[in-house]
Design goal:
By secondary structure, this protein is of the alpha/beta class. The protein has 2 domains: 200 residues, 3-Layer(aba) Sandwich (Rossmann fold), CATH 3.40.50.720; 36 residues. Helix content is 46%, strand content 15%. The chain contains 9 helices and 7 strands, in the order E-H-E-H-E-H-E-H-E-H-H-E-H-H-H-E. It has a 7-stranded parallel sheet with strand order 3-2-1-4-5-6-7, with helices on both faces. Strand 4, helix 4 and strand 5 form a beta-alpha-beta unit. Helix 4 packs parallel to helix 5 and helix 7 packs across helix 8. The chain is globular, with a radius of gyration of 18 Å.
Length: 260
């Protein structure tokens, strides 16, 4: 299926590893030129090289997207932004009794305020051109909060509420600009490995035992793959998904136990 994205430009945040990388490479396979930003230069260079090998332009921007300087550098590197993939590392797990205002501010900046700032910088130009796709990578914890991820639960839920309103703004929706959230469950990434390691340490149990227990709770009986997540991202950005906006798409191998 031709997704109708050939020659578009995407800005993919935190795109050197994990789910962001999966999205960047999936879009590149559809002929999308990519601006990829991340803090780690080596991993970023490797991902950009893989994207170029797929026949598209790939621009690397080393920086922290959660800072004004990082955002400015990423935006200025893009000839235009037809597709915005918002992504940033989640805050650490822990007990809310141990967090102070600075911890909350960091979480809000990374997982709520930064995506909003990037949407503000790009969506009106998308509307003027008559095409735009915003994909926010949030978390399955938005639907089923995880006790030890309170910082993430709070910040990402705030973003979800904001997007629910923005996506329904006719100045965007009527101009073929869609805004959707992808909610990953357990994927085989550095993030989930760190979460499992923290749980094992907290419980005083072997890591392998904790990992096996977590996977057994997923009906698919495995972790998701970044490539699978990226394929979903590419579809949400496609011409075929033009009538899909304001949605929270849960990708978790069936782990969420609810009907809706």
């Amino acid at each position: 299926m031709d997704f109708g994205l050939q020659g578009k430009w995407a800005l993919v945040c935190a795109g050197s590893k994990g789910l962001g990388r999966g999205c960047a490479l999936a879009l590149a396979r559809e002929g999308v030129n990519v601006v990829i930003t991340a803090r780690g230069a080596d991993a970023l260079a490797a991902t950009a090289a893989q994207a170029r090998a797929l026949g598209v332009q790939a621009i690397e921007v080393v920086g922290d997207i959660t800072t004004p300087e990082g955002r400015a550098a990423a935006l200025s590197a893009a000839p235009q932004v037809d597709i915005l993939v918002n992504n940033a590392g989640g805050p650490p797990p822990g007990d809310f009794r141990d967090w102070d205002e600075a911890d909350w501010q960091r979480a809000l900046t990374a997982n709520m305020l930064t995506p909003i700032a990037l949407m503000k910088a790009t969506v009106d130009a998308m509307a003027a051109r008559g095409f735009g796709r915003v994909v926010n990578i949030t978390s399955g914890a938005v639907k089923a909060p995880i006790e030890v991820l309170g910082l993430s639960n709070g910040a990402r839920s705030g973003l979800t509420g904001f997007v629910a309103g923005l996506a329904r703004d006719a100045r965007l929706a009527a101009r073929n600009v869609t805004v959707n959230n992808l909610l990953p469950g357990s994927f085989d990434t550095d993030r989930i490995r760190a979460t499992h390691a923290a749980a094992a340490q907290r419980q005083g149990r072997p890591l392998a035992e904790v990992q096996a227990e977590k996977i057994a709770a997923i009906p698919a009986r495995r972790l998701g793959l970044a490539e699978e997540f990226g394929a979903m991202c590419a579809f949400v950005c496609s011409q075929q998904a033009a009538y899909l906006t304001g949605q929270n798409l849960l990708i978790d191998g069936g782990a969420y136990p609810g009907a809706m």
